[in-house]
Design brief:
The structure is a homodimer of 712-residue chains. Chain A has 26 helices and 21 strands. By secondary structure, chain A is of the alpha+beta class.
């Protein structure tokens, strides 16, 4: 951790010298301040165009439209799951070997990748807050959920739209985000993992850096043709240079900058350590699992990547809170805020008790979180998740929309269905490993004498239970294959009562009748899992929402409206500049070049360049900028975000932050926190000279439509 | 963690109601206070006898002499390594199947097990403190080390004695402990792991409990015969009953009760989390490694046990410090102490700055600990450790005793030699796994660009480096086998320049000439490892010792001499009583019975009783007390300690503490912290009716000498 010389800016408080801080919503962007600092003022039209050219990957990443034919740019690590799924389906290893579809017809559909384009934002604060006015603590979450489900359903008039009521400022404002939903996304081009993630875990979150962490996919419409879209980013001829103003439009997943000190200390002392212990253990487990063989390595790479990335990111967060100077600044901010509230009798009366209330709720949460995590977060297995989804979907679909668990409300169904019924391959060997481990951890958390643990394990060991469940379940089957009459050779209806499709379409009757062992397993403790969830919602979530609404109101009252909300995995815009920084007394330059990758090549994983790069070296312009660091304020979820200049041209592709930025969950330090992107020039250089992807280059340059390039 | 309702006693401060707190030294035992509370006053003679009947296992456990023929009782988990080593040598699995030597002649020697009997304690405080009077901070550690080496050498007149200068009260007092050293220890009896560790990791540190965590070994003299010893514990006819006064004599490994708050916060925020992350990862790795096959499972069981046990123990400690109420009490204690120091001008002048100084040193330590851990804590591999020992031993043995690294001083050599040249089997497959992992972690800690990381890895991956080193080294060979002349069939001298014995006895010339890849690897960065160690000693260890001496003096001045020092893995005596406690509003009884084990048996590991128990059930008295909880103040290192009554009779065998006791590193809470022991009655019942170990039963009862029993 290199967070020593932190000079935290005002965080969410309006500070006199306006810093490059903030993950701003598009309807509250500080254009005037940007003009003051950088001489350019984004207009409403400019912001609208940027918003519409940005897309979100529903699973947790950002992306952008970069052609009129639905071509989308994102990170390799955002498409890893798709690439791994396609590898499994086609018995190839596209993560290792890379992928390029020579023509449109060669672009294969990603199982279960959904993209969302934000087309409209509507303020629904009054409606949401009115619904819960005077409602008791323990009914708060439930009441609000019902109102939100109603709003979302009214908005999502067809499966083409996805509507989410977004809680901003932790309850200070509620906006309805209406998205166009795309569920046919196909893989166009992906480089080899060895260059997309060059340096691997050791270089992850490090700078200087040399990664081509890019992938291109394409959105297809429901007509099966590439999406025609007027609004997309163009390509910058020059790319980003030192000092340039840069914007990043993407979906930061979450930040904790408005948590109270009681919550921060809970993060430092419990929440982060506990997650890190589990991630570490899983890391060791999967690392060794990979040695079972090449196929096991291939199908667990994605899991290992996720685990190592999360571990490093969360360890950085823990390190930030463990730094007394860093936490001290956050404590001082809270003291300042409290002082200002208490100095005003009206504010003191309305908001003076909020901090203590939140501290008390945090303690309540601590008392039930293990049980919540084990039973409702519960067992770690894709097949278990599918079983639970089927079981609950059957029950919930019979209820009025507003009374359902929120993931089963009408507006959420299209994504749920696409995930449940995707043809992504499932690896039973890995499933057994994950479930065994997870059952062991549940027993560890709750103790062998906990009644649900006894229901889960009976007289067996976790390993035996997991093996029996995974071997026995048929939920890995998407739909039973069509049968042929052995005599006539004609197709006959399959006797499909067991596949995911059959159980989902069969609804409650089919699920109730199911003797699938995994369904039976999920059924065995579903009542207890639902009970702890209800308890969490009534005793923690609802009361906390209520207090956080008050806290947000206090913050508006004290600091005004020109503040940005904590990140919520919704579209945000950040501004900044290409800029170096000081590290251990040395100057770190903001741009690296392609020859740096060759200098770092050792030949041994993760510092081995792929053969394609070694072969192409003589053709490459080694001075081409490769990666670039900027002061943009980003966080996990921003992966795949376009970095654009004031002309809305792509100058880079965000894929990381530096190690100093890992405390960014809690606070932003402009002197050291850096966003890290693939430079636009490196993308073109590689597509053209290494991957022979001329049709993509031309599409990016707007010279030819992709369909033209594909059909020639 | 169940540390919620903590009502910490006065800790090391003399509190008005004298608690069952303290790991007391034998020369400062509070006999009068024990009499006041329990009506029995241990005399000097009583204490001497208890001390002489107690023995320490040099590797990190406690034990006791329980017959006149050198029979020693300890925990199964303290002898695990011996049992696993013997299994490897004899191609058996004694951990799984248990072991019983029917006669003396069947007792096999444990590789590298050393036992120490404390025969004399001498106060050398003045001599040690005088040596460093006026010495500068950065020379303090070095100067003290030289004086201590001198004292120890004068005392250890032959290999039969081991002499350690023990730093008590973190520098408030220095005592010379003179031990009789025993290096021929043989295995007599061990039950199956399934009952020794019944409940496994889930039940570890839990109570109620049902473990027969016992093993019997025997000390043999240098004459190869069982040790004849007058002083040993006798067996209690009745065992411990609720309310009985109990003493535990053993070697608690270390406590942190006199750390300053700055050090405690460092523990909470860095030291404990970092260790826990690593232990978790290793746990996952070894858990999966065990699935490679039954042999791999067998030879890695000991590692997994160590890792899981350490994880659970340290997680408990972290949980204690993360508990604001617990830490708050420790903070209040420090405030009280500071206030008293500052209230007295003389004390203020002498000691007022100590806390700030210690905080500053703690920060310095933080800055170098990663490098220290990686380079001097070193790659995690037995073969690497042996290589480094050989390399350094060759260098150090040429230096004057006082200038050597402390592990190479004359008084330490017998143990070092026994470990280095033990015939314990080495499993190269496990070694590769450990070393690969460890090299990866070193790269993670220091970064791939660190000069030593480059020296370690060159252009290879950690896995390739580890495999080449472990496959290539011949340090697994203890001594080259004797050759025979193929013609005459007569023995000829082996061409042994490579074995550990050859390299050790060959000294510097042999080691310098060695081309063994592991020796070369260790040599490659030994200068850097020594340099960081020197830096640590000069900048952290020495200055800290100096301040801690002051702190100890301040504590004596404020609280008097009747206080106990932090644990130091030296012999201590604690007193207490058989007593239940409250947990989550329920009463936990202090005694369990054998039938509880049968009730807990599920048939699946770790809740599967061994066949011997199931078979013997009809013969057993199921009401026999099995495990017992007492208020004795113990901690890791106390494992294997005898629990005795006032007549110095064995009433139990300490093997664990309850989960509440895990915060005991930092503070003792008599209301909830419990020591957990195997009841003496259960030991006899099992030996007699399950294991048919009549010769041991008789020896314990003093009815026959072991040699008699064995030769019959």
């Amino acid at each position: 951790m290199k967070l020593r010389t932190l000079a935290l800016s005002g965080l969410v408080l309006a500070s006199p010298a306006f810093a490059d801080e903030g993950m701003w919503t598009f309807n509250n962007f500080p254009s005037a301040e940007v003009k003051k600092k950088y001489g350019f003022e984004p207009t409403k039209e400019w912001l609208d165009q940027v918003r519409l050219a940005s897309v979100r990957i529903a699973g947790g990443c950002s992306a952008s439209l970069v052609s009129a034919d639905g071509l989308v740019m994102t990170n390799h690590h955002c498409a890893r799951t798709c690439i791994e799924n396609l590898s499994g389906l086609q018995k190839k290893d596209f993560n290792k070997d890379g992928f390029f579809a020579k023509t449109l017809a060669d672009e294969p559909k990603c199982p279960a990748m959904e993209m969302n384009q934000l087309v409209e934002i509507t303020d629904v604060t009054k409606r949401v807050q009115d619904a819960t006015k005077g409602v008791a603590d323990d009914k708060f979450a439930e009441t609000q959920k019902a109102e939100i489900a109603k709003i979302e359903k009214e908005c999502a008039t067809s499966d083409e739209f996805r509507c989410d009521v977004v809680t901003l400022y932790r309850g200070g404002r509620y906006d309805l985000y209406k998205y166009r939903r795309f569920q046919d996304v196909r893989l166009v081009m992906a480089p080899e993992d060895a260059i997309a993630f060059f340096g691997g875990d050791p270089d992850n979150f490090m700078f200087p850096r040399y990664d081509l962490d890019m992938t291109f996919v394409r959105i297809y419409g429901t007509d099966g043709k590439p999406l025609k879209n007027d609004t997309h980013f163009k390509w910058s001829a020059s790319g980003a240079k030192e000092g340039d103003l840069t914007f990043v439009s993407g979906n930061p997943g979450g930040t904790s900058r408005t948590l109270t000190v009681a919550q921060l200390e809970d993060d430092r002392d419990y929440r982060l350590p506990m997650r890190l212990f589990r991630l570490s253990e899983l890391r060791g487990l999967v690392t060794e699992y990979q040695l079972r063989g090449p196929e096991q390595k291939r199908h667990s790479n994605d899991t290992l990547f996720y685990v190592e990335n999360a571990f490093k990111a969360l360890k950085g967060r823990h390190g930030a809170l463990a730094d007394a100077a860093f936490l001290g600044k956050l404590k001082a901010n809270e003291e300042d805020f409290k002082k200002k509230v208490n100095a005003n009798p009206k504010l003191k009366k309305d908001f003076g008790k909020v901090w203590d209330e939140i501290a008390a709720i945090t303690k309540k949460n601590a008392a039930i979180r293990k049980e919540y995590g084990a039973l409702e977060g519960g067992p770690y297995s894709d097949l278990f998740s599918k079983a639970r989804t089927l079981l609950r979907s059957a029950e919930e679909s019979g209820k009025p929309n507003g009374e359902r668990l929120k993931e089963f409300t009408d507006s959420r169904l299209p994504q749920l269905k696409a995930q449940l019924l995707s043809n992504a391959p499932i690896y039973k060997e890995l499933e057994i490993t994950k479930l065994t481990w997870s059952l062991t951890k549940i027993r560890e958390d709750l103790g062998p004498d906990h009644p649900v643990v006894k229901k889960m394990l009976g007289l067996k060991s976790p390993a035996d239970v997991a093996k029996a469940l995974i071997d026995g379940t048929r939920l890995d089957v998407l739909a039973a294959p069509e049968q042929k009459d052995p005599k006539t050779g004609k197709p006959v209806p399959a006797n499909d009562t067991f596949s995911r499709t059959a159980l989902f379409t069969g609804g409650k009757a089919a699920v109730d009748a199911s003797k699938d062992p995994m369904i039976e397993f999920a059924r065995r403790f579903d009542a207890e899992a639902r009970a702890i969830r209800t308890r969490f919602e009534n005793e923690v979530e609802g009361p906390l929402k209520k207090q956080q609404e008050l806290l947000a109101k206090a913050r508006f009252a004290v600091y005004g409206e020109k503040i940005y909300p904590d990140a919520t995995f919704t579209l945000r815009l950040s501004f900044g500049a290409v800029k170096g920084y000081q590290e251990d007394g040395r100057e770190v330059k903001p741009l690296t070049t392609i020859d740096g990758a060759f200098a770092r090549h050792t030949g041994a994983d993760p510092f081995a360049l792929p053969k394609s790069w070694l072969d192409a070296k003589p053709k490459l312009n080694l001075e081409t900028p490769f990666n670039v660091a900027t002061t943009n304020d980003i966080i996990g979820g921003n992966s795949g975000s376009p970095m654009v200049n004031k002309d809305r041209e792509v100058v880079g592709l965000i894929f990381d932050g530096n190690i100093q930025s890992l405390g960014g969950d809690y606070g932003f330090d402009e002197s050291q926190n850096r966003a890290v992107a693939v430079h636009s020039a490196a993308i073109l250089e590689a597509l053209e000279k290494i991957y022979g992807a001329q049709r993509i280059v031309e599409e990016l340059k707007g010279k030819a439509t992709s369909s033209g390039a594909g059909s020639k």
